[in-house]
Amino acid sequence: MIEIRRHGQKTMEAGRGGMKCTTFILMAAVFLAGAAAGAQAFMTGVPNRTVTPLNGKWQYLVDIREAGYNTRTPFYKNLNPRSDGELVEYKFTDQQTLDVPGDWNSQSERLDLYEGLVWYKRDFTYAVHPGRRLFLYFGAANSKAEVWLNGQALGRHEGGFTPFQFEVTGKVQEGPNLLVVAVNDRRAAEAVPALQYDWWNYGGLTGDVFLIETPETFIDEARVGLVKGSLAEAEVSLELDGPAKAGKIVTVTVPELNFKRTVSMDADGKAALRFTGRFRLWSPSDPYLYDVAFSTDEETLRDRVGFRSIEAKGERILLNGRPVFLRGICMHEEVPQRRSRANGEADARLLLGWAKELGCNFVRLAHYPYHESFPRLADEMGLLVWEEIPVYQRIDFENAGTLAVARNMLGELIRRDANRASVIIWSVGNETPITPARTKFLTTLAEDARRADGTRLVSAALYFGDYKDGVITIDDPLSAALDVVSVNEYIGWYYGWQGAPKDNRWKVAVPKPLLMTEFGGEALYGNPGRADALNSWGEEYQAELYRRQLEMLTRIPSLCGTAPWILADFRSPVRSQLTFQNGWNRKGLISERGQKKKAWGVMAEFYRQKAREEAESKKVLK
Known about the structure:
The N terminus is likely disordered. The N and C termini lie far apart (64 Å). This protein is α/β, with parallel strands linked by helices. The chain folds into three domains: 180 residues, Galactose-binding domain-like (Jelly Rolls, Sandwich); 90 residues, Immunoglobulin-like; 264 residues, Glycosidases (TIM Barrel, Alpha-Beta Barrel), CATH 3.20.20. It is built from seven helices and 35 strands. The strands form nine sheets. The protein has an eight-stranded parallel β-barrel, surrounded by four helices. Strands 3-2-4-9-6-7 form a six-stranded antiparallel β-sheet, with no helix packed on it. A four-stranded antiparallel β-sheet has the order 1-10-5-8, with no helix packed on it. Helix 6 links the parallel strand 32 and strand 33.
């Protein structure tokens, strides 16, 4: 048994908020009812609350045949023989442990290729405090999780990348407690994502596990940010949970702005207020964060918030009212040198640090929600962020249950990161085939995103429609539901060039900002290859491909940013060219050992030039 000690309030630097529409809670209830049995809409601002971490070493059992659900000897009861004549055919032991947070694939050689059910067990002791409530919070569990506390079922959750929680007030015992979680990452045709996807299916408890202690009535959610369309007015929205929420007083303070105001909660425990100020606006060049506090007579919830606006007008993206070119890069939530899922602040700092070194002001966190450390660090580091849910290629668009899972995942992502200044785009999908069912599915998600958070942009990474006679046509009907038209194109890799780059023209059916969310090609680090030979898998070809791409893309009048694919080589079970790939997608600008390829220099110089142009334009405006 492992002794767990409580610790006090923990504060992390954070960011800016979008506003909660009045329909959000109703939407969240719809999402959760459709996709999770037992899991609750989690409280926000978890890193800034009073938490007891349950991270660390967990015992585990691999259950290929799912025998642990046997009603005679279920794993979640952690049975031991009561006599010499009783048979129990399993045993959790310290000889077999996994680190949490973390994926099981990278921690055990025999689990590297495993997809299926794994049972996690953790013993902990706790000193129960009368008059306080307790919640068990999971940052992420890929992809389905069922939870038992002291042999009692708490519920389940589906969705491998977003948080969930259970109230365990009265269920946590004074002293020893037994926590068991069954995690299953087996792929399914009706799941999100479905059977086929081009990244590693890292299974396990990949997010933090916390016990959160609150007063009986506590601040469940607090959002703050600029009112849409304004640079001088902010809005705060609050929601309490508990028996005494009606009429409870909450004080909102922003000391640096000399702002302090109290508000009384309505019968549903909700309230909103607005205030004006001379805000130092958050931007990549000045990622300024304000200390904000939300207080009742029983608790104070703190955050670090940036104030900024993001809009799409005509064919431009406006940050704080001025056009911005997104100097971006795509990435995966993977540390390639470790061959594992990134799962904490140090990992986020490594990957986002590479993006800053490249000259980026923007990162696309593809193709699923990342650990909460990523957007929080992006707030501090001055990186604009695209966040995405894994509606990836061919999922079951006609399945109502699949839509419910996707809606739930989107609602959980928005709820978690609504206060992050860095997050400017919610993406509802990637490379989905154009069918009526798919367009309806993604349009529903886009509408959900706007109702939940009307202060950010909505997009999806699309295929281009046609490439004929040097004309690339973008006419996806989903464009009507998006604020930014984003396109993945692989001319020079999956598609041959039609003439010289300068001779290729882009035709976009709707007059909206255009963002190039993927382009590039593969190269094995250290293999020079030939600049004119795609199948040499060489650095010279990849670098030349980038040069030709940039020559073409910079001629598009509505282009507002580029995010080539991808920052670093990443593991993929569908990459079977053994000489050069060997289970890795080699489109990275950095190898799996952290070595920079020649194309890195091409992209870095392009972004240096773009940064110089931006600086000159600011001088002119002044």
